[in-house]
């Protein structure tokens, strides 16, 4: 919403400076976006007087002037024909920037005569296009600031333009008068009274108006207007054109300009029909649907059933409250007109405007809410202005419907206001504020004015009082914790775990990513998602159509992007939500790590090797350890389809899946354009059980001083036998004595098969025996060893390697 | 005696290998060594003679022994020195590689913010990111005809044709967590709710997903002046410099009165400096909770009152750490992750400081 200072002063009696007005507006909630102050570029120029002027010795058209300035007499060479003794001029001194010339002056020599500055023309100061001579002022003293002189004598020349943004709750501030009212309430001036006029009609309107019954209740409560005949629609007066231009509107004709002026001045949109182009009466009714409507914006719209329109016998002439029609619009030949002032229901206007995608000043205002009570007074004031500017003769007013009742009242609890805002605002001040804003007070009940549809409860009264009192003045008041002493932890166990997982994975050398929660449907489908339930109805791009079912697709896409940039080896991770369905709560927290390419760079130590599933497994186990997962989970091969079926595993506790790890399926890599190898792990953080124990104490350390014994065993087993089978069997051989079993080697492949037979491999176990009571004898060791061999052979179907 | 001494000490001094040194030791101090033999002769001497000769012999024996040991150590040192000279390695070669992981700025800043608000007695609340329209809009006093509900900045979930319910939305703000937290816990309550939010906006300075943090405190007499204190304490701790705020009246459907909050700042040579100068930068929206919102959360507005605020996490991360482009937050460019990321062991704490 733009306006100029002089326009504001039409409604506000004030001497306040533009800076103070701007600060107050922002503080009041009418946030200033920009102030354009033409006086700024004229700052510094002063008035001077030519005390003598003589012919330049070497140039016919130049005169050498002696000029009285605030810094004494100066000699200035001037080529203007009106440069002569006795005139008051505007002086630009050496060092001054002259906006119209885009130069900074310096002392010059013109044809051998020194010149100390210049006397400016209007064009040189960008005041107008006038350049026939230098400015001659009819008044003013030497040394007076030119901007001061302009402010007194030609205020429009230095009229600042203010642009403010209006929050949706303040339709009243969409007119200059509403803004003035806020400023007056703040104490920055006095709101001038608005003239009240009733222009008597001299004949009956030849046009009747009627609101269809369907719309009277809601869409169109009130429609009023009158015919004015015999007008002359020329250009609007200069003052009006200037104001409209200043706020970015193009003056068109007096009639159009008047409607625009009322829109911005009083938030009273109007419409004018050319009577020569209207046949019959005007009826407000819902469109049937499918009608074409050529609007004033020169576009054609297909109306929906129910869109509110104004029709004559010929059809739709106006889209009510949004935009008039081309066929009945006024032009310079208009002689008889119908001036419309109506009140439209905001929701109806918003729905139609949105559906047809028409933006207009009228729609903008009606959908936020104009003052319904001002419909008739606005019509009268506009009539008067038409008569003043275009002449003509008005009819009686015709009207259907009535001003909707907006009467309501809320209790002003002045103590509660103070308590909520936390600022001492005396009761009298609170009441004065509301009164100044147009509220009617009856005891402690406050009735909002008709132009404030947003005020809907006691809380709104608090807001009005607070913003006028100024939130900038608010003093910070400490708020103690609710409890004293050392505060208790505030994170839930899951929140702590999530943070622990995140920082552990990063410690393992992964870079944390935050990728979008939505991915493309194809990628989602690859990872078990992509259903309609997780589809966005209005995605912003085809890359972001579905909620991600898993974190891996996002990480793989990130990997592909990095590979395209030349980074082949990556360790990326993300901790965040994955979406199983489209209902609130169908969301789980995952932690996923992705390793792509080589485990290390090329270096002299041969660190470069492809990442493999054991890298992912080691990292997974480190994270699970850090978040307190139980050590003994089972590994199975119930895998989702995006894992390599032979090189991946799932860690579960019964049916409860905690994590998966392994190689990504080569097909997935191909689909997602990632150059492998790629291995990953995914942890379902909520599925990892929390430790049951309470308290921080740990069980006593069961260490023994007796010498532990390590024995190695190698077994020949079928190639598909899993090491864990052998390990578990060995552990079971003597649960008391055997402390740990490690796989320390495996021998597989063609060479192994050559030695041990087709389809065979060897695995080597190191078993650590920890005696508790007495040092082990060789016989005891032999006994245990025998048990181990038996158990492992039986469990694996293999035999001790000889 | 003197002769013996000269003979062996000279021999020790002149020897340059350990084998010869051992021979000297045997010759002098061995069982059949010259000095040992002389010791044996002591028995034949008179007591006086024995005493003086014995003492001299012992001294001589110790002296030669010490010389032998010293020489031996010197030879060993020389040998070690010679070996070490051969064992030179190029120390400028790289160490074995170890990846350095990083924490994303959004996570780091969330932890920073959590640490600060935890110190002021706020817990962390969470809520779903796919929300029903009641929690996201109605409960927050955003009427069905409110522009935010209609226009293009809300992502809607697909709704099956046979499902009469209004479509769910991707939460457009963290404010629905206010409602869930109130319904869960009642009053009094102090929570923050950081998390992802979604709006249909994608340009130079907007991404369709970003992060917000919601704050809410409800008590018997919590006021907007308390809100100002909380925010100033927060910003000062967060930026590590005393930061003033400016409250400006504004409008949000879920607060009344509402204020936009600016923080003090200045631009020096194109560089933003928080906490100094006379400029202001808008950073968040806030206000006293609307009575209807309290009611939606099952809290009686005639008994309780409180404030709420919402702030962009990505934005305050950009301000604090000088990150220029929001879009890069979600692109996972390795160079960006490494440059703007944080050491995972730098867990922000109030006691350890919040500035990295």
Automatic annotation (TrEMBL), chain A:
Signal peptide: none annotated. The keyword Nucleotide-binding applies. Gene3D superfamilies: 3.30.56.10, Bira Bifunctional Protein, Domain 2, Ferrodoxin-fold anticodon-binding domain, Nucleic acid-binding proteins, Phenylalanyl-trna Synthetase, Chain B, domain 3. Mg(2+) binds at residues 454, 460, 463-464. GO terms for molecular function: ATP binding; magnesium ion binding; phenylalanine-tRNA ligase activity; tRNA binding. It is found in: Cytoplasm. Keywords: Aminoacyl-tRNA synthetase, ATP-binding, Cytoplasm, Ligase, Magnesium, Metal-binding, Nucleotide-binding, Protein biosynthesis, RNA-binding, tRNA-binding. Its cofactor is Mg(2+). Binds 2 magnesium ions per tetramer. Residues 704-801 form the FDX-ACB domain. Belongs to the phenylalanyl-tRNA synthetase beta subunit family. Type 1 subfamily. HAMAP family: Phe_tRNA_synth_beta1. Tetramer of two alpha and two beta subunits. This is Phenylalanine--tRNA ligase beta subunit. The lineage of its organism: Bacteria, Pseudomonadati, Pseudomonadota, Alphaproteobacteria, Rhodobacterales.
From TrEMBL, chain B:
Binds 2 magnesium ions per tetramer. SUPFAM superfamilies: Class II aaRS and biotin synthetases (SSF55681), tRNA-binding arm (SSF46589). Transmembrane segments: none annotated. GO terms for cellular component: cytoplasm. This is Phenylalanine--tRNA ligase alpha subunit. It comes from Thioclava dalianensis. Belongs to the class-II aminoacyl-tRNA synthetase family. Phe-tRNA synthetase alpha subunit type 1 subfamily. InterPro entries: aa-tRNA-synth_II, aa-tRNA-synth_II/BPL/LPL, Phe-tRNA-synth_IIc_asu, Phe-tRNA_ligase_II_N, Phe_tRNA_ligase_alpha1_bac, Phenylalanyl-tRNA_Synthase, tRNA-bd_arm. It comes from the Bacteria. Tetramer of two alpha and two beta subunits. One of its GO terms (molecular function) is magnesium ion binding. Residues 107-344 form the Aminoacyl-transfer RNA synthetases class-II family profile domain. It catalyses: tRNA(Phe) + L-phenylalanine + ATP = L-phenylalanyl-tRNA(Phe) + AMP + diphosphate + H(+). Mg(2+) binds at residue 256. Its main location: cytoplasm. Keywords: Aminoacyl-tRNA synthetase, ATP-binding, Cytoplasm, Ligase, Magnesium, Metal-binding, Nucleotide-binding, Protein biosynthesis. Its EC number is 6.1.1.20. One of its GO terms (biological process) is phenylalanyl-tRNA aminoacylation. Its cofactor is Mg(2+). It is found in: Cytoplasm.
């Amino acid at each position: 919403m733009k306006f100029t200072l002089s326009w504001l002063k039409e409604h506000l009696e004030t001497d306040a400076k533009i800076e103070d007005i701007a600060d107050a507006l922002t503080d009041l909630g009418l946030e200033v976006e920009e102030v354009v102050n033409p006086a700024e570029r004229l700052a510094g120029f002063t008035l001077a007087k030519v005390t003598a002027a003589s012919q330049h010795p070497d140039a016919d058209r130049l005169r050498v002037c002696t000029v009285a300035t605030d810094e004494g007499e100066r000699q200035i060479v001037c080529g203007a024909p009106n440069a002569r003794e006795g005139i008051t001029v505007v002086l630009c001194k050496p060092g001054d920037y002259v906006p119209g010339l885009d130069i900074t002056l310096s002392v010059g020599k013109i044809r051998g005569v020194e010149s100390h500055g210049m006397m400016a023309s209007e064009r040189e100061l960008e005041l107008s296009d006038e350049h026939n001579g230098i400015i001659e002022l009819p008044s003013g003293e030497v040394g007076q600031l030119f901007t001061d002189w302009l402010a007194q004598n030609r205020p429009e020349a230095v009229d600042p333009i203010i642009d403010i943004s209006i929050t949706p709750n303040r339709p009243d501030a969409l007119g200059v008068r509403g803004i003035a009212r806020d400023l007056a309430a703040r104490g920055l001036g006095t709101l001038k009274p608005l003239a009240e006029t009733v222009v008597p009609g001299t004949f009956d309107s030849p046009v009747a108006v009627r609101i269809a019954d369907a719309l009277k209740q809601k869409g169109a409560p009130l429609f009023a207007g009158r015919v004015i005949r015999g007008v002359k629609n020329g250009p609007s007066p200069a003052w009006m054109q200037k104001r409209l231009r200043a706020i970015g509107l193009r003056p068109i004709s007096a009639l159009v300009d008047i409607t625009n002026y009322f829109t911005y001045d009083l938030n009273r949109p109007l419409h004018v029909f050319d009577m020569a182009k209207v046949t019959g009466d005007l009826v407000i009714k819902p469109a049937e649907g499918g009608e074409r409507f050529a609007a004033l914006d020169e576009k054609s719209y297909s109306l929906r059933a129910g869109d509110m329109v104004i029709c004559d016998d010929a059809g739709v002439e106006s889209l009510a409250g949004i935009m008039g029609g081309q066929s009945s619009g006024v032009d310079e030949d208009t002689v008889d007109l119908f001036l419309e002032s109506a009140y439209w229901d905001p929701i109806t206007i918003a729905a139609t405007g949105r559906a047809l995608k028409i933006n207009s000043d009228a729609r903008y205002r009606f959908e936020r809410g104009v003052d319904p009570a001002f419909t008739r007074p606005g019509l009268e004031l506009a009539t008067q202005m038409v008569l003043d500017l275009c002449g003509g003769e008005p009819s009686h007013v015709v009207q259907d419907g009535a001003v909707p009742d907006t009467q309501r009242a809320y209790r002003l609890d002045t103590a509660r206001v103070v308590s909520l805002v936390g600022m001492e605002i005396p009761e009298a001040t609170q009441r004065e504020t509301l009164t100044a804003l147009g509220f009617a007070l009856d005891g402690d009940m406050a009735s909002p004015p008709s132009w404030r549809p947003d005020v809907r409860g006691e809380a709104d009264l608090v807001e009005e009082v607070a913003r006028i009192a100024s939130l900038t003045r608010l003093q910070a008041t400490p708020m103690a914790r609710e409890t004293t002493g050392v505060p208790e932890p505030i994170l839930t166990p899951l929140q702590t775990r999530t943070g622990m997982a995140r920082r552990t994975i990063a410690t393992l050398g992964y870079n944390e990513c935050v990728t979008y929660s939505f991915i493309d449907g194809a990628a989602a489908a690859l990872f078990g998602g992509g259903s309609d339930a997780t589809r966005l109805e209005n995605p912003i791009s085809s890359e972001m159509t579905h909620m991600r079912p898993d974190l891996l697709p996002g990480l793989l896409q990130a990997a592909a992007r990095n590979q395209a940039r030349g980074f082949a080896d990556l360790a990326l991770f993300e901790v965040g939500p994955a979406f199983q369905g489209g209902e609130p709560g169908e969301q789980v927290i995952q932690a996923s790590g992705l390793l792509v390419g080589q485990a290390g760079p090329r270096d002299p130590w041969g660190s470069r090797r492809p990442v493999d599933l054991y890298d992912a497994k080691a990292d997974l186990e480190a994270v699970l350890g850090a978040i307190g997962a139980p050590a003994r989970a089972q590994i199975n091969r119930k895998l989702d389809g995006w894992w390599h079926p032979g090189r991946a595993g799932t860690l579960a506790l019964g049916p409860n899946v905690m994590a998966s790890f392994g190689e990504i399926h080569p097909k997935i890599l191909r689909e997602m354009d990632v150059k492998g190898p790629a291995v990953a792990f995914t942890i379902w953080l909520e599925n990892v059980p929390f430790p049951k124990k309470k308290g921080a104490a740990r069980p006593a350390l069961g260490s023994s001083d007796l010498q532990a014994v390590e024995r190695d065993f190698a077994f020949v087993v079928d190639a598909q036998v899993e090491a864990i089978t052998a390990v578990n069997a060995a552990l079971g051989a003597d649960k008391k004595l055997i402390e740990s079993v490690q796989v320390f080697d495996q021998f597989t492949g063609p060479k192994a098969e050559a030695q041990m037979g087709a389809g065979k491999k060897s695995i080597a176990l190191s078993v650590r025996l920890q005696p508790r009571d007495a040092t082990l004898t060789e016989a005891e060791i032999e006994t245990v060893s025998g048990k181990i061999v038996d158990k492992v052979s039986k469990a694996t179907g293999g035999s001790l390697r000889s | 005696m003197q002769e013996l001494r000269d003979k062996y000490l000279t021999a020790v001094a002149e020897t340059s290998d350990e084998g010869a040194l051992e021979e000297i030791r045997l010759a002098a101090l061995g069982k059949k060594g010259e000095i040992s033999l002389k010791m044996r002769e002591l028995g034949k001497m008179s007591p006086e003679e024995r005493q003086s000769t014995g003492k001299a012999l012992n001294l001589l024996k110790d002296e030669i022994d010490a010389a032998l040991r010293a020489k031996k150590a010197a030879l060993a040192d020389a040998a070690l020195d010679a070996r070490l000279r051969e064992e030179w390695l190029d120390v400028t070669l790289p160490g074995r590689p170890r990846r350095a992981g990083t924490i994303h700025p959004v996570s780091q800043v969330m932890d920073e913010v959590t640490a600060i608000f935890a110190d002021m007695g706020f817990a962390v609340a969470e809520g779903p990111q796919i929300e029903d329209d009641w929690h996201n809009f109605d409960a927050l006093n955003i009427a069905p005809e409110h522009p935010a509900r209609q226009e293009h900045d809300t992502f809607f979930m697909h709704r099956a044709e046979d499902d009469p319910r209004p479509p769910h939305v991707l939460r457009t703000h963290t404010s629905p967590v206010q409602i869930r937290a109130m319904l869960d816990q009642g009053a009094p309550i102090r929570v923050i709710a950081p998390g992802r939010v979604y709006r249909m906006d994608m340009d130079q300075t907007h991404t369709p997903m970003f992060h917000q943090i919601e704050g809410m405190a409800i008590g018997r007499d919590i006021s907007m002046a308390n809100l100002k204190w909380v925010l100033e304490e927060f910003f000062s701790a967060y930026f590590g410099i005393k930061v003033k705020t400016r409250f400006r009246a504004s409008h949000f459907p879920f607060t009344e009165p509402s204020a936009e909050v600016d923080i003090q700042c200045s631009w020096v040579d194109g560089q933003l400096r928080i906490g100094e100068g006379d400029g202001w930068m808008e950073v968040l929206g806030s206000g006293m909770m609307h009575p209807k919102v309290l009611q939606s959360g099952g809290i009686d507005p005639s008994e309780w009152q409180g404030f709420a605020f919402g702030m962009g996490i990505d934005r305050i991360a950009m301000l604090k750490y000088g990150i220029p482009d929001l879009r890069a937050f979600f692109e996972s460019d390795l160079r960006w992750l490494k440059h703007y990321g944080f050491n995972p062991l730098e867990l922000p704490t109030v006691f350890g400081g919040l500035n990295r």
